[in-house]
Specification:
single chain, mainly alpha, Ubiquitin-like (UB roll), Son of Sevenless (SoS) protein, Chain S, domain 2, 2 domains, three-stranded antiparallel β-sheet, 8 strands, 47% helix, signal, guanine-nucleotide releasing factor, Ras_GEF_dom_sf, RASGEF_cat_dom, guanyl-nucleotide exchange factor activity
């Protein structure tokens, strides 16, 4: 799990309006080369969060770090949809390895290593690797002999308790920054990405990078909230932090950012946070009651009835809880036939209304 200050940096830096100043190019000069985008989950998060979010395409080129067993790294330039073989080719070229015949023991393999120590060996034919890595997972290139020796990056497993910046930031600032950054991510998602994500499955996804990033962001905020609370050692300060996060959730709901609202509430509902009995007892009754209302709103009973009633009364623009949209689409896809008596089932394949929330 990342240090708590890194999560806060993502929140506060995410919506910074970093304006890029472009110098005028003389007419006789060469046209600018294609823009290369750092992918914030797998490059330097701070650098990329300071940039205005733009939609990713499979053909886009990005910067990405690939680590070695000794935790050194090389920065490669690659297509977002690049295969494992393409990535290893770029790493090999960067490391100035000589070309080795396939099957040699000293040839490189690509491994995704999570902060928990879990390792996944990626096959050469797999593609769109960058958008499928989990939270705190990084790419490592190594030989087969050094596979067992791979360990997570030190900054992801060494977390020191103590006060962080969240204690000194107003709830309104955090909620507004979360909403602004998530809006930038949400508006980059094309409606067809939802269809591609559900209909084609993990093996067939090609153009779902923006949706994958939005889903990843929701998980990141959830883990950030739980991490901040658990890093605070004093029960009194933890209670104050709980109050602050409940306020943030309320403000996100007021901003019609239901993605952030859900993420914060789920972070406070984390089992490790819920069992802090002495901390919850210090919480004023007003905030306990408010949090119970939030729990009822996020309750999945009766197919998320409470949530659906609330969002149906909101006027666009709204940032919905995206995982529920995918759940609904999956239910429609698996529970309805694409063809009925040889004819297309229009009820199943009618155009999505996802774009209505962004008007």
């Amino acid at each position: 799990m990342l240090p708590a200050w890194c999560w806060l940096t993502i929140c506060l830096a995410g919506c910074a309006n970093a304006q890029l100043v472009h110098a005028r190019i003389p007419e006789e000069s060469q046209p600018p080369s294609k823009q290369v985008k750092p992918l914030f989950r797998h490059f330097r998060r701070i650098d990329s969060c300071l940039q205005t979010r733009v939609a990713f395409r499979g053909s886009d080129e990005i910067f990405c770090r690939v680590y070695m067993p000794d935790h050194s790294y090389v920065t490669i330039r690659s297509r977002l949809s690049a295969s494992v073989q393409d990535i290893l080719g770029s790493v090999t070229e960067k490391l100035q390895y000589s070309e080795e015949p396939a099957g040699r023991e000293d040839s490189l393999i690509l491994v995704a290593v999570a902060s928990s120590g879990e390792k996944v060996l990626l096959q050469p034919t797999e593609d769109c690797v960058f958008t499928t890595l989990g939270i705190n997972s990084h790419l490592f290139a190594c030989t087969r002999d050094s596979y067992e020796a791979l360990v997570p990056l030190p900054e992801e497993i060494q977390v020191s308790p103590g006060d962080t910046e969240i204690h000194r930031v107003e709830p309104e600032d955090v909620a507004n920054h979360l909403t602004a950054f998530h809006w930038e991510l949400f508006r980059c998602v094309h409606e067809l990405e939802f269809v591609d994500y559900v209909f084609h499955g993990e093996r067939g996804r090609r153009e779902t990078a923006n949706l994958e990033l939005l889903l990843q962001r929701c998980s990141e905020v959830t883990h950030w909230v739980a991490t901040e609370v658990l890093l605070c050692e004093a029960p009194g300060k933890r209670a104050q932090l709980l109050k602050k996060f409940i306020k943030i959730a309320a403000l996100c709901k007021q901003n019609q950012d239901l993605l952030s609202f859900y993420a914060v509430v789920m972070g406070l509902d984390n089992a490790a946070v819920s069992r802090l009995r002495l901390t919850w007892e210090k919480l004023p009754g007003k905030f306990k009651n408010l949090f119970r209302k939030f729990e009822n709103l996020t309750d999945p009973c009766r197919n998320h009835k409470s949530y659906r009633e609330v969002i149906s009364k909101m006027k666009p623009p709204v940032i919905p809880f995206v995982p529920l949209i995918l759940k609904d689409l999956t239910f429609l896809h698996e529970g309805s036939k694409t063809l009925v008596d040889g004819l297309v089932n229009i009820e199943k394949l009618r155009p999505s209304k996802i774009g209505d929330w962004r008007e």
